Amino acid sequence: MSEQYERMWEGLGLDLGAHDALLEVLGKGYQDIYLAQKNRPEAMAYFDFVMSEVHGLRIRELLDEKAAGRKVIGSFCVFVPEEIVRAADATLVGLCTGADFAMEEVEKLLPRNTCSLIKSAFGFKLGKVCPYIEASDMLVGENTCDGKKKSFETLKDLVSKFHIMDIPQMKSVEGRALLKAEYLRFKEAVEKLTGITIDAGRLKKGIEIVNNKRKAIHRLASLRKANPVPISGLDALLVNQVYFYDDPARFTDSVNKICDELEVRIEKNEGVVPETSPRILLSGCPMAVPNWKLPWIIETCGAVIVGEESCVGERGTRNLTDDTGGTVDELMEAIVDRYCKVDCAIFTPNPDRFEHIVEMFEQYQADGVIHYSLQFCQPYLMESMPVEKALEAKNIPTLRIETDYSLEDVGQLKTRVEAFLEMVK
Amino acid sequence: MSEQYERMWEGLGLDLGAHDALLEVLGKGYQDIYLAQKNRPEAMAYFDFVMSEVHGLRIRELLDEKAAGRKVIGSFCVFVPEEIVRAADATLVGLCTGADFAMEEVEKLLPRNTCSLIKSAFGFKLGKVCPYIEASDMLVGENTCDGKKKSFETLKDLVSKFHIMDIPQMKSVEGRALLKAEYLRFKEAVEKLTGITIDAGRLKKGIEIVNNKRKAIHRLASLRKANPVPISGLDALLVNQVYFYDDPARFTDSVNKICDELEVRIEKNEGVVPETSPRILLSGCPMAVPNWKLPWIIETCGAVIVGEESCVGERGTRNLTDDTGGTVDELMEAIVDRYCKVDCAIFTPNPDRFEHIVEMFEQYQADGVIHYSLQFCQPYLMESMPVEKALEAKNIPTLRIETDYSLEDVGQLKTRVEAFLEMVK
Questions:
Q1: A37, exposed or middle or buried, with CB in 10 Å at 0-12, 13-18, 19+?
Q2: Can you tell me whether residue A344 is helix, strand or coil?
Q3: Across-strand partners of A373?
Q4: Assuming Cys at both sites, which of A404, B191, B273, B284 could form a disulfide with A116, CB separation 3.0 to 4.6 Å?
């Protein structure tokens, strides 16, 4: 696709040579990990197409939107309320991360002991290989973990427009007030950027668009409770990843099409893997494209992932936003309520997450939990220890994995996962 | 001193064998690092005595206070307002950390990639060797960095009474409101613990006690501007460390006695080291007793530390609390204002710290800055990179050190410090 889009990428200031190299690696990875799977739902073809055009057609669409006067906002986190962005006819996109790039440049700006996700976001920017960040009219950074919070102080100087959003550490009265103040400030920033005043009607529409995406994802998640499970964890993860990039209405339709197909499979008792395959719940840090290493290891070891307790997964999408309010303030309150339920490990204490993992384990009929932490991600690493204890107290087999984006530990991880799978089933 | 206090330590539930071993190592370290120094001020004898009795006489005093109905509150951070504690006739003590202890037990509860300070605090508790934590009626944990915030979820179950204090991440209107709400909640907790209602008179008195400690420290700091400098950095650091343990009035007197002596030295142009010794400003993470490794390396390499931009140092003590208010609310506002000025790296952005480092460099006539980060301390590690850039832009020689509490890297650090010192002077 290089030739077709070369001028577009050049216009965005990408490093064409480096970008070509990246696309080649991505394409090869997708081939080996995704297309090598057997028995995939036919409707996944749409997602294969999306991935093949993730730096091409989708970017062209965003640039067309921009040419028509719409704005593009880039984000790193599920705490950035897409409802508000959609209310202003703008588009929210998740920014590139998920693979090591330009690490030598990155380590001039960030400590070596920084998590892969943050380093990767910097690498894509410094290496000039992320068309999403270059196409964005504004970036939003949120004060979640120390790593992101402090690294944004450097990132803000590398881009043209950066909006910092403060996030509470406790779900207290003051914490909620802070989140509300910050969401109101974000609404103002979006209004200023787009020139559109967000009224109740627009906000209601924005909530509807995002809720529809979530409802489609809920439907997909629910079908994974079946045994045999009708879709692989890798494919379901991809759907959850594309959630952050794609046009919302088209995405919603495409997920529903997969669900139609999966319902037929379930009726025929057809699984993507045999009924006897160990069913794994994956819990922990978010997995951005193309960070498929651990799910790929788990599923090529003969297990199947039936749910993701993750920001790229159920933590990010499970709660809908109440759209029954009649005024901007009522709807903003509903948005704040909705996001206050997100049980990220940055919160202290974070009991909802413990309960949610157990609930998912039971609902998805899982045989074991694999907890995934990025190395140096203190919130999830710290929380993984009490999570493991809480799960083991309920006799839920649990494996804690700490890794990064490199492929050096694939052999070691495979050995640990295999040993775990033998134990759970 | 073991025999004299054995029953007391036993009563506190200490592991006597392990505690004896710890005291032996501490005593040996103090001998080698502190008592081996030449040309020390005579008034440091008080601090030598304090250190020799840090687990003995001082604990006896605290237990005597408790027997008389007073309460002891333990803290890990300069954000816990001592003014409020003193207003209720209670005593605030800094808790043990600064050395690796019981690491095998610690790593069952915390990730290996946790900073030494946090691991050490757990180690002293799990190893049953910290009489301060055992003598405390209440511990206060503050949500500063991710590491402390999340580890407190585990620590709270290891002690009898734990008070969590939320801390903002930004110095915004909402951030300040959060700190005020949390300080009011802390005041209530202290009132409940002590049975004492804190009125304006008590709060004024509490502010006065703590301000007096700070003023004595300011006087000491100011005398270090002289060249030749009249006191070693190690001795000044010890004074800053004892600040967290000692009886405030006695501490204030003892610091002022050193200052009297240093003023005579300055008048006679007498230094603790030759005038030509490189003058170093130390900046970064706090250094708790007995974490003297880096200052000891710097000063045995022939340099002298003239200031500490640290929580155990000027970041923690430089601001006084305004005591002119007439009501509890006015005084609480003054306390909030005072602590809002602390420029810890957990805040984003944190421009005051950059300015303060430059200001200290100039005021103390330093020749270079050594920035000290604990490994895995994300806020200070992240901030050290823009700090280095900002200092180098002003032609201030800067060395960034990342280390932990082990002694394995002493040789390597010595080599780096020596090379740096050759460069600065």
A1: middle
A2: coil
A3: A402
A4: A404
Contact A382 B345 (CB under 8 A): no
B12: helix, strand or coil: coil
Contact B164, A144 (CB under 8 A): no
Tell me the C-alpha distance between B8 and B22, whole Å: 16
Nearest to B164 by CA among B187, B183, B188, B141: B141
Using the Cβ of A155 and the Cβ atoms of chain B, whether some distance falls under 8 Å is answered with no
Instruction: Please give the pLDDT value at position B6.
Output: 96
In whole angstroms, how far apart are CA B202 and each of A180, B339, B416? 36, 19, 50
Q: How confident is the model at residue B137 (pLDDT cuts 50, 70, 90)?
A: very high
Closest to B164 in 3D by CA, of A404, A169, A318: A169
> Count of residues for chain B?
425
Question: Does A3 have pLDDT greater than 90?
Answer: no
Would you say how long chain A is, in residues?
425
Q: What is the DSSP letter of A312?
A: T
Q: Where would I find the H helices in A101-199? A: 103-106, 116-126, 131-135, 146-155, 173-194
Tens of pLDDT, residue by residue over A177-217, are 999 999 999 999 999 999 999 999 999 999 999 999 999 99
What is the rounded distance in angstroms from the CA atom of residue B282 to the CA atom of residue B311? 11
Say which of B173, B348, B376 has its CB closest to residue A149: B348
Tokens of A115: 């998590």
Residues A233/A301, Cβ–Cβ less than 8 Å: no
Three-state SS for B245?
Answer: coil
User: DSSP string covering B292-325, please?
Assistant: -HHHHHHHHTT-EEEEEESTTTHHHHSPPPP---
Looking only at the bridges linking them, the beta strands covering B72-75 and B91-94 are parallel
A378/B contact by beta carbon, under 8 A: yes
Neighboring chain A residues of B158 at a CB cutoff of 8 Å: none
3-class DSSP assignment, residue B143 = strand
**In the structure encoding, which two tokens stand for residue B234, read together?**
């190690």
How much is the pTM?
0.97
What's the pLDDT at A2?
64
Which percentage of chain B shows pLDDT scores above 90?
A: 98
* pLDDT for res B339: 98
Contact A178, A76 (CB under 8 A): no
Q: Which two tokens stand for residue B122?
A: 């757990």
pLDDT band at residue A1 under the 50/70/90 scheme = low
Alpha carbon distance, N-terminus to C-terminus of chain B: 44
Position B1 pLDDT exceeds 80: no
Q: Which residues in chain A are closer than 8 Å to B348, comparing Cβ atoms?
A: 143, 149-150, 152-153, 164
